[in-house]
Amino acid sequence: MLENGLNALWQSMGIPNLVWGQALMVLIGGLLIFLAIRKGFEPLLLLPIGFGCILANVPVAGLAEDGVGQLLLEANPEHLAALAQALGVPVSEVAYAAKHAAGEALTAARLLAHNLDYQPGMLHQFYSVAIGSGVAPLLIFMGVGALTDFGALIAKPSTLLLGAAAQFGIFTTLIGALALNAVPGFDFTLADASAIAIIGGADGPTAIFLASKLAPDLLGAIAVAAYSYMALVPIIQPPIMRALTTETERQVEMAQLRPVSKLEKILFPLTVLLLCLLFLPSAAPLIGMLTFGNLLRESGVVDRLSKAAQNEIINAVTIILGLSIGSKLQADKFLSVETLGILALGAVAFCIGTATGIIMGKIMHRLSGGKVNPLIGAAGVSAVPMAARVVNKVGLEANHHNFLLMHAMGPNVAGVIGSAVAAGVLLAVVGN
Questions:
Q1: Are residues 272 and 241 in the same domain?
Q2: Rounded distance, CA 160 to CA 417, Å?
Q3: 244 has pLDDT over 90
Q4: Do 33 and 138 share a structural domain?
Q5: What is the mean pLDDT of residues 66-94?
Q6: Whole-angstrom distance, CA of residue 98 vs CA of residue 92
Q7: What are the distances in angstroms from CA 334 to CA 100, 116, 228?
Q8: Same domain for 295 and 273?
Q9: In whole angstroms, what is the distance from residue 279 CA to residue 275 CA?
Q10: Number of domains within the chain
Q11: Alpha-carbon span 204 to 218, nearest angstrom
């Protein structure tokens, strides 16, 4: 009796159940936490993502599993037999079949797990509420709108071109994702490729929103890739910025932006929303929440709501969102050819987006007679405000009197709008 009890205790521990993939992902989670704490790389994102990654790979606990996953972990012979029957496969193949189930088979498996009282793990519930429902990206967009001063874009509307140019990586990656189908192990549809391509905008909320509509099965990998590259902006962008600009170009000091009136700041979000409603209704959820958040900020009559959107709401959503993304870093799901391909495409897309933004910046530099610093084009990606801060840092390295932060915020805000517009276009074209 005692021996059986000790054996049961041993088998319930993590040590005998830990596989190499889980150990690797725990190390990766630790690396993300290290980068957040020691290096300061977007800690609001990387810290909860890294911690969620570690939690998702705790052996036996099944924190990131749905009801079907919990059934497989429990390994009750009767329940496994019932699941095999629901999926129409032998018991020996039930684990593989459950992992790749779709359509009616998946629905039947989930219903069986529910009827047998298998409850989803904590992280899976977070994921379902925050990402699966699509609520979190919209609330994040509202918070971004409330936190961001659009004055730089209003003062210099030409920076819209920089934000637009930085979205070029999205459409390049769309072609790249389709081209990957020539490689064994990849089978991306046009909808899948469209969802993957949006990673190039370095806009996590938009990537989640679009993936939930076009490629729900790839949502986890896309979310991880998008937020990872957002967080790694300080590492990825500077080498590209230095490679594509000369020392003289980086030293260019830009003239102070004109003052923007309160009326202009109030009318801007309303104008953007109106244009969206007229020309691209499919982007209305993202653009609508972004402009609503900004209107809360600029109206001056709802300070409590504005502060809530800037602090309590976005902070709570960020915690749940980070843990939810980390939940998709499970070893058995993440360490696959398809996921690694998405990560590689995301990296290429982000680099292309940064490069095209800088190239447009160089064009504007020439056309303006040297008055525009090409570096601000790198801020055309949607990583607000990290990309603008990186531009400012690189500019200061070349010229200690060169403060580019406010100038970079223009294309940075334009990039947010641009990625939402790109998502709307893809949703309108591919989603139907």
A1: yes
A2: 9
A3: yes
A4: no
A5: 87
A6: 11
A7: 14, 28, 14
A8: yes
A9: 6
A10: 2
A11: 14
Torsion of CA 125, 129, 132, 134, to 10 degrees: -170
pLDDT at 432: 63
Whether 5 maps to a domain, the answer reads: no
Rounded Cα distance, 357 and 350, in Å = 11
Q: What is the largest CA-CA distance in the chain?
A: 87
pLDDT score at 30: 94
Same domain, 197 and 119: no
Residue 114 lies in a domain: yes
The domain boundary, picked from 91, 108, 129, lies at: 129
Give the range of the structural domain holding residue 38, as residue numbers without chain letter.
19-129
| The pair of three-digit structure tokens given for residue 375, joined into one six-digit string | 């570096």
What are the angstrom distances between the C-alpha of 395 and each of 106, 205, 242, 367, 406? 53, 28, 10, 20, 12
d(CA 144, CA 66): 31
pTM of the full predicted structure? 0.88
Evaluated on CA atoms 59, 322, 335, 87, the torsion sign reads positive
- Domain boundary residue among 129, 149, 182? 129
Q: Is the pLDDT of residue 148 over 70?
A: yes
- pLDDT of residue 336 exceeding 70, the answer is yes
Structure confidence by residue, pLDDT tens digits, 174-212: 888 888 888 877 888 888 888 888 887 778 888 888 888
Number of C-beta neighbours around residue 14 at 10 A:
12
Tell whether 254 and 380 lie within a shared domain: yes
